[in-house]
Amino acid sequence: MTPDEIKTLHAIARDAIVAAATRRDPSPPPALTPALQADGAAFVTIHRDGALRGCIGHIEAHEPLWQSVREMATAAASRDDRFEPIGPAELDRLDVEISVLTPLTPCRPDEVVVGRDGLIIRAQGRSGLLLPQVPVEHRWDRETFLAETCRKAGLPRDAWKDPATKIFRFTAEIV
Predict the structure, then answer these.
(1) What is the pLDDT of residues 65-77, one digit of tens each?
(2) Which distant-in-sequence residues (6+ apart) come within 8 Å of 164 by Cβ?
(3) What is d(CA 63, CA 78) in angstroms, rounded to the nearest whole number?
(4) 36, 5 Cβ separation under 8 angstroms
(5) Domains in the chain: boundaries
(6) What rounded mean pLDDT belongs to the chain?
(7) Dihedrals φ, ψ of 114, to 5°?
(8) CA distance 8 to 50
(9) Fold exhibited by the domain 3-101
(10) 17-53, pLDDT tens digit by residue?
(11) According to the CATH classification, is domain 105-174 in 3.30.1490.150?
(12) DSSP one-letter code for 64
């Protein structure tokens, strides 16, 4: 993505967060490049003073990237079940990170590369996802990354070793 496209996505995300916090509709998007109008999957992560405050995303592209970012920013600010909705008093203390995802590809555990791959693990009707930056932030090795993704899915930490467990990887451009 170009620097201008990154700025545009951040402006869209910030506007959506402010709109959610102040209970107004988001502003119309600014001029959009073809790349921002193309279908794209994205996660929006919000931190307040360095602590996670909300993170929600789409894992598959079903709508234009700009729209996915706006919807996920709104959801991260107002519908992440782990947190109370963001209020107006917090707006000046927020940092926003956008992860634009590549399509999912099936993989084996030995193919996972920490620092490059994000993971989705599916088994027993459950699913867990961790973005590529998570194992780096926590200094996890590959097996810990796999185990923590299982834990996030509500599975036993060693569920990734079961041949019936499906493992998918993706990469993300973090802006």
Answers:
(1) 999 999 999 999 9
(2) 123
(3) 21
(4) yes
(5) 3-101, 105-174
(6) 96
(7) -65, 135
(8) 23
(9) Glycoprotein, Type 4 Pilin (3.30.700)
(10) 999 999 999 999 989 999 999 999 999 999 999 999 9
(11) yes
(12) B
